[in-house]
Amino acid sequence: MTDIKAGLIGFGNIGAGVVRMLQDNAGVIRKKTGTGIVLKRIADLDITSDRGVAVDPACLTTDVNQIFNDPEISIVIELIGGYEPAKTFVLKAIASGKHVVTANKALLALHGDEIYTAAAAKGVEVQYEAAVGGGIPVLSAIKGNLAGNRFGSVFGIMNGTCNYILTRMTQEGADFADVLQNAKELGYAEPDPTFDIEGTDTAHKLAVLASLCFGTRIDFGAIYTEGITAISGIDIRFAEQFGYRIKLLAIGKQTDDGQLEVRVHPTMIPQDNPLADVNGVFNAIRLAGDFVGPVMFYGRGAGQNPTASAIVGDIIEISRSITAGVRSRRAAPLGFQDETIATLPLKPMEEIVTKFMLRFAALDQPGVLAGIAGALGLRGISIESMVQTTRHNGGQAVPIVIMTHEAREGSIREALAEIDRHDFICEKSRFIRIEDNLQ
Amino acid sequence: MTDIKAGLIGFGNIGAGVVRMLQDNAGVIRKKTGTGIVLKRIADLDITSDRGVAVDPACLTTDVNQIFNDPEISIVIELIGGYEPAKTFVLKAIASGKHVVTANKALLALHGDEIYTAAAAKGVEVQYEAAVGGGIPVLSAIKGNLAGNRFGSVFGIMNGTCNYILTRMTQEGADFADVLQNAKELGYAEPDPTFDIEGTDTAHKLAVLASLCFGTRIDFGAIYTEGITAISGIDIRFAEQFGYRIKLLAIGKQTDDGQLEVRVHPTMIPQDNPLADVNGVFNAIRLAGDFVGPVMFYGRGAGQNPTASAIVGDIIEISRSITAGVRSRRAAPLGFQDETIATLPLKPMEEIVTKFMLRFAALDQPGVLAGIAGALGLRGISIESMVQTTRHNGGQAVPIVIMTHEAREGSIREALAEIDRHDFICEKSRFIRIEDNLQ
After folding, report:
1. Tens digit of pLDDT for each residue in B183-225?
2. 20 to 30 A from A396, CA-CA: which of A114, A266, B100, B167?
3. From the candidates B40, B205, B253, B355, which is the catalytic residue?
4. Which residues in chain A are contacts of B128 at CB distance < 8 A?
5. Which structural domains are found in chain B, ordered by start?
6. Are B105 and B132 in contact (CB under 8 A)?
7. Does B316 sit within 8 Å of A148, measured CB to CB?
């Protein structure tokens, strides 16, 4: 059996991890595939910097066409990230008849449909396990052994930066800005962390996951996305007081009416929910299938080595197809036959029904509670419990925190808008969604 | 595309679940495979009892040869369990050129090697995801996306009956015998629970997992197997006092010297270890790969529906191979090429090094601690902490509990044998292994 040849586009941190894993574990990979897997070409604009791995300089090129035009190369690994030129390169690789492995969640979330269609037409595989959950093999499981299930939900913690920040805010009582600054210094947050802390990265991953679980195209722009920048130490302390922890969750659900809920936002979950103990840079993804029931996957959601594990896993799976001499069994990139992919309607956020924690900053004067409770009651929002912690003298605002029973989000927003028109309200009122019964 | 035909041997609880899943989810399965999957024949000695699922009576047969001899049937599902006639049937199915799906961990743990060899020679697949962890797709992950890793360890909670009993003993302070009796009444334990509570079922699963992770044959008889029948409420309370929880763990490790540790026994793990919160009938399996790092899988480890999910998942994967028109990419049943499977040496239990909790029942008299500490010190066993809780008047035994630093198990056994020869020792001294740093 001749070696299988791959080409790598993008020789950054993750790319160097892939190179090292293919070198260090060549023996075990050969035992499992029956073939050698050789990185024949590595393309990057910078081919002089030291990446801490030994590569034959003859492999390196600044001309990506040396990969597309090489008939020996059957697998192209795209690790440059972002939309362009990644999209052009992936489509070119497919057009050249090469299988593609990518970790590019942004690309797939926005242009997956176009890429999968091109791949199906050409009869090549597009694999992307590393796009969600780093080294956690959750996408393979959904497409593979769990495929006989209808999934009711998929949710989880999918961004290590946000989880690291929220974990430290919870454990140390620290404030968002301070932890973020420190996280940057320690390398747990990018110099520009916007994509992470605003929830965009999590939404990219949710788009990929929800497509797989529900067999649907997802309009990325329609995913409700709210990051963690507005979460304060006060929110976290009140949540703890009520028995909850705040996590940035990605949530996908198919409701009984056939609509999808696809949303990313800070979420209060009970402290005894297994996700509540997923701390630091770890990720966890939970699925509910109609037969398998709840299943959870946990592991390192980012980093050079775990991400390399997922990418090399995809390369191995494709190599097995090549060795078997077939157009892959898995060519359908969503695990569904292409012609069956639907476009399920997304439920508008106003229609979401959940419990809420409401937080008001109000003057301590007669009529405040009546005003708040009245606006809630008028819209059928019922109160489960309430805390008004401290009582100041004079005209200082005191926090009032209310836990509601299940309510429409639209009603909550209307009630808060009405309440915020009162003079006794000192700052914009806040709400955090609660998920008590995520299955 | 014509439908793929399967034959089921064993129409019990799990078999009925498979029938129902193939019926209920036929639509989604077709969307994911492009074909229908039809159960053409169901063989069982009892073809009259109602299993709660609708089947065409013409499908039912008491003659298993109607499955082997039917050229239309390409997949045989073996769900009768036990060694015989399951082994004969599986080998006959393979000899008839049929792919095999089984949930039979006992069969694979003892006769896997013979079955895999026969399957490889015949070019058919043997899939067995349901054999370990019920619906949790951990075997697929090891053979699939995680395949590029060298695994340092695999361990977890793999028996729902034991975990249910230990969970209730921990939460209620109840005794083993009482909980077991109640578990039988509730259907969480078999009428004869020996295989579960003595650890045999867990050892079967560990044999399968360790073979996959380390690419080795495992001599099932050489697996150290200790169940939970000797665990008392006192053990659990002392463990809690020291910050630990007691779980029946299956542990597989490859040590630096190339030897394997493969063992099943009650184990004390820190209360903040994620496995400590895996309660009731849930299973969790944790792996450590050299690149992926720690990964954990969690879900329902038994039951009709989760087990059906894993079996149907295997059927789907095989169907995709058949549809692709190939001898499977995955024919190597251990994920390794057959000729590379090793027979790694198992480390003798006396050579295991870990921490221990020792519990003595001793008379409260001078010289006791000196006698115990002397026997330990003589063998280089150092004491981390000690508790002597109550002081009785007169000649009653008091419990003395000692936490050791890391020590050889052989040394511990020798020390306890010496200590037990003293007159001040009132009953056989006990030890429970501690795993502080399972990675």
Report:
1. 999 888 888 999 999 999 999 999 999 999 999 999 999 999 9
2. A266
3. B205
4. none
5. 4-135+304-337 (3.40.50.720), 144-300 (3.30.360.10), 350-434 (3.30.70.260)
6. yes
7. yes
